[in-house]
Structures are given as C-alpha cells and as structure tokens.
Amino acid sequence: MTVSQDNSATTFEGQKILLVDDDTSLLKLLSIRLRSFGLTVETVESAAEALAKLPTFQPHLVLTDLRMSEMDGLALYEQIHQQSLTLPVIIMTAHGTIKEAVEATSLGVFGFITKPINHAELTQKIQQALTVHKPVMATEKQAKWRHNIIGQSQVMEALLQDLYHVAQSDISVYIQGESGTGKELIAQAIHAASPRHKKPFIAVNCSAIPEDLLESELFGHKRGAFSGAVENRKGLFELADGGVLFLDEIGDMSPAFQVKLLRALQENEIRPVGADKTVSIDVRVVSASHKDLKQLVEEKAFRLDLYYRLNIVTLKLPTLRQRPEDIPLLASHFISQQRGKAKKLSNDAMELLLGYDWPGNIRELKNVIEQVCTFATASLIPASLIEKALQQENLTMVSLQEAKSNFERDYLIRVLKLVGGNVSHAARIAQRNRTEFYRLLDRHQLKPSEFKQKSE
User: Fold this and answer.
1) How far apart are CA 133 and CA 165, in angstroms?
2) Which residues does this entry mark as bearing 4-aspartylphosphate (predicted)?
C-alpha cells in the first residue's frame, strides 16, 4: 500500500483514535504514523471488533475502511452513531467514488478519504474532526453542569460526552428513558452546560396537567379570559424566556394541543389565553418521555411534524440495570442524604442491590435506601433490611382505586389553584355540576377558600 509522507509537526497529545481495517499492513503503518503525532491508537481488523472496543477504549475519533466483510464502514458508522451522537468517523476506501462520498457525508460521516492515503490530507481531516468534536476534558468533567449526575460507568460517560457537545448548540433535544432514570437531571445538565445557563430553567410535566389547563399553564392568560382569571398571568414559555423549557412526558400531550405547541415552536411566539396579540419568545425546548415517540407517530397518536421539531437530537438514558457499576455510588449518595445512624452498606447488602433488576430505576433505588435508613439501628446496613425493602417494593404497588383517588385529588388542587378557588368555574372545567363538585371537594377535604387566599 502506497502512503505519501508529510513532515507536519501536528500533535494530538492525549487524544485517542480507533483504526479499523482488514489490511493489517496498513493498520501497522498508520498506527506508527499517528502515534508519532501523540495520538493514542488502538487497531482492530473488523467492525465487530471495533464495536466491542468502543466502550472500554472510548476513542475521540474512529478511522475505518469502507470495504470490509460482514459489516462495512457505513454500517459500522450507523452502529456507532446509535451509541454516541458526537463521535466523529472518517471513512477510507480504495474504491472511492463521488456517489459513496455523498452517501457517507449525508449520513453524518465526518470525512471520506481515498487510498492510497495522502498523510497531509489525513492529518488535516483528523485535526478538523478533533477540533470540531473537541472531547470533554477532565476539567470539564468536574464542572458544575454535571455535579448532580452520580455515576462513572462507561455508558454514562458516553452519554455525558454527547450531552456536553449538544448543549453548546441551541437545537431541540429529546430525552428518551424509562421512568425513574433521571430525565429531568439530564435536562438540567443540558441547561447548565449551555450558553443559556444564566437564564431560567423551567420544568413542566405534561401528563400532570389536565388538557383544559395546559394552554393557560404554558402560554399564560389575560385578566378576564375566564371566570377566576383575576389578573394577567405569564405562562411557562414567557417565564423561561432566554432559557430552557423542559417538557416532560411530552408523549401524553393531546393531539389538539400538539398543534398549538407546534405553531409556537415554528413561529417563536405564543398567544396567551384571552389575548389579541402574540408574544415573542426565545426558548430552547428540551422534551422527554418514557414512551417511544416514534411508535406513537406510527400509531397516529403524535404528530410527525412536531416529532421532527422536538427530536433534532435524541439522548437515550440507560436504565439502572444497564449501569450496575453506578449502583454503589448512587446508594452511598442516597445514604449520605439521610439522617440517622446508617452510614454504609454491608457487603451482603450491596450484593443484593447489585443482583436486583430495578424496574423502577434510580427512583426505586432511592426509595429502598430511604426505607432501610429509617429502620437501621447501626452504622452498617445489614442485608436483611435490604431484602425486606426489596420484597416490599414488589408488593406495595397501590391499588387502582388508590391511584385514581390520588390523581383526582391532584387534579382538583390544580383546578382550584388556576381559578383562584372559584368553584363555579372549576366545576365547568371539570365538567361537573356544582353539587357534584362540592361532593368531590368534601371527599378530599379541600376548601375553596384556602385557594382564594393563596391567589390573593
């Protein structure tokens, strides 16, 4: 294989590159050359080996051949892109054509180089890739933006690497993750790492707000817009102006309101309820859901145009069972937050935590730790307390009736807050007559007068 020489003094001290090619002689030649620039180099002879190497080596750049057996360079790129959005990939080929180059770059491949390799061109491409996709260095890893995120697993480090790069732009981000994985913490980290960090971060759970109230909650309302609207009120979009608005559980939003949200995002303006003029907004939207939005789109339950507007970049949160090495850190953190005698877990207790499946993820782990710390009588938490808490976790799902009752109470409180305790208007929103509505309030021991005082 012919390789041209270059006397470039370029150095890439401390940065890592993964070379992928089934030509062992080229791998050896390239690795020698790139190590002379200060790069840490790992070589593999297949795409499968590359994918296996990624989690442990964590390169800052991948340089791969296009033509390989079983899985080619483009297929490898697609697999890498699913794991790490911002890891740059440069593809080499002896069969370079304009068509292949266009296909590669349109998919997001950083660069495309033909063989025989011109080292000046390759060095330039590498320099560009490592400049544009600057890795998060140690000082940034200790920065305030990530202080609330506990964990050192490779899967979380890869996620935070992507998060930091995404945060520097102003694009919309969609966070996919099971309940209890910490979607709001990730949204807060995006805000904290972004140029908007000095502006507000506002979070709202779309599933917790009745549809009748969602428009007023997000867009605000004018005095007199409805009974109980005794003064102008800014919505969450206005309150978040200049900053970040986090829309959690976006998948639960009704199709009717999706249209209004799409219009606000497209036009960068909102119209408060009862207003005759629009209000300009400057808000970065981060959304999240435990549901699969793509599936909801296919089921016609979520608008495709809104999906593309919100989902410019997706960050997929790992479940707790996918990052077991973080369980000891998380458990110790939660123990430190509790008052009482408990200070640490016994080895047997930790083994139980590591062997559990954690369907409720980090939220469930926190709940278990709170339980055992409450009953611990010594500094060392025994396995028996953990075992008992885990058994209770499996048995203490509330009944359907209790879940309905909890939801009903929360709904009534939100309605009364919105209308300032005006029972007539609250009953109309709930689509109940006054007598029935008063009966609901009595059931939950709620007094409208208390909400009137709070609104004033």
Assistant:
1) 8
2) 65
Q: Give which of 343, 332, 335 is closest to 378, Cα–Cα.
A: 343
> Under the phi-then-psi rule, with left for phi > 0, alpha for psi from -120 to 50, and beta for the rest, what region is 38?
left
Let me know how long the chain is.
456
| Sheet hosting strand 173-176, strand order edge to edge | 201-205, 244-248, 284-289, 173-176, 313-316
Q: Interhelix angle for 47-57 vs 73-83, to 10°?
A: 30
Residue range 43-84, pLDDT digits in tens: 999 998 998 888 778 888 999 998 888 888 888 988 887 777
Residue owning tokens 């600057």: 134
CB 48 within 8 A of CB 77: no
Q: pLDDT digit string (tens) for 157-195?
A: 889 989 999 999 999 999 999 999 999 999 999 999 999
Confidence (pLDDT) at 176: 93
Taking the C-alpha atoms of 184, 188, 191 and 194 in order, what is their torsion angle to the nearest 10 degrees?
-120
- Omega before 116 cis (within 30°)? yes
**What Rg, from alpha-carbon coordinates, does the chain have?**
27
Q: Where are the alpha helices (DSSP H) in 210-360?
A: 211-219, 236-239, 255-267, 293-298, 304-310, 327-336, 347-355
Does residue 62 contact residue 88 with C-beta atoms inside 8 Å?
Answer: yes
Which residue in the block uniquely carries the two structure tokens 């070379």? 19
